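Feature request disguised as a bug report, sorry. It would help if multi-protein outputs had a clear separator. Right now it looks like this:
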Amino acid sequence: MHKGFLKAAAFIGALSVVLGAFGAHGLKQLLDEKSLAVYETAVRYQFYHVFALAAVGILYKEFPVKMLRYAGGLFLTGMLFFSGSLYLLTYRAVAHNDGFLWAGPITPLGGVLLIAAWICLALGIGKGK
């Protein structure tokens, strides 16, 4: 399980760099400042939580407790919901698409999942040997 979290962190970290570079070089001409800020928030939060997911993988090897497994799953799901919904809203702005309005309410749910992941991480560390 710990290697799965570490591999996911590595791939999502690489994706974060790709998406960050795309935002810096490809989207600046296509988006207004507000939409670009939304995109940058998505990349930033995704990248921050890559380190948390990697920490879960490292800690889970030493302390294979259920709470750390929950933390890893919540970090993954939270990143998908939080950053993913912001990416969809950015796509909506670039494509001048009226769809994806449902993505807006998903963002706070992703934030709640990330908060829950941090709490599970703390509880998991507390239950370790």
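(second protein starts here, but nothing in the output says so)
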Amino acid sequence: MRKSAALLIISTLLIASPVYALSLKFQNNSSWEIHELYFSPTDEQEWGPDQLADEIIEAKGVFTLTKIPKGNYDVKIVDEDGDECVIADVNFTSSEHFVLNDKLLIGCQVQTAEDEEE
């Protein structure tokens, strides 16, 4: 009797628990601090909360997020100058390691500015 009750509780917890990505690690190899980081499910129009809250990813620093639900997201990165970089339709299905560098951020910022003008 106890065994079946324990199995019922465990199976209920497993069913009720959402599926999470293991972690999202952002390695900032750029020359700029990252001050804001937002996610939006790709099929949504609104950005979620700033994932960094009061944190900053220092130049040459690392920041790791955990328990991000798996799925496809648009990602918005805002640097210390307020420049925005939006990367569309990123598929988070497992642990991910993102390396940000000057070339990537500048290219993304230029593309984001052009997209906003259209």
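Even a blank line would do. Unrelated, but nice: The longest strand covers residues 71-79.
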